[in-house]
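Task card 7
Instruction: Convert sequence to structure tokens.
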Amino acid sequence: MTAEFKQEIWTEDQRLQQTDTGSLSLKRPNRFRWTYEGPAELVIVADGTQLWIYDKELEEVTVTPFDDTVGASPAVLLSGDRNVREDFEVVQSYTRDALDWIKLEPKKTSDFSSISIGFNGTEPRRLELVDGLGQTTRIELDHLVVNPEIADEVFHLDVPPGVDVNGNDG
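Output:
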């Protein structure tokens, strides 16, 4: 799947930060690339074995193993190779804003207490992730393309010269 996204973080009644925008590519199993174009410039890439987080402003890449902790993330929820019910419990389904929603709660420790996905037919259009502090990250997907051909090179991060790499980049 490929899409453009808009991401905001909200408390119950107010937006906490500027709106982030960018693009994403997801490919099963466990490969994804989220590129934040602004205001923060960040690239998050997973190839199923390693996870790279590149902060352009800090000129720093952090590399970690792709493991079960990453497995409870929204990107893996959409691109993973396991049955969603292995890692999440479906706690509610409802209709809101002309979308059909499913609310999931992770079975293991996660950064999020719940993840809700709003579908238009079979296509995910909005994600709402609630963290332990009750803040909601809202991600709206636009220009969605389902099942496109995506080259494996998309899920590789070319680290620019002079950028510090922390972690295992083997």
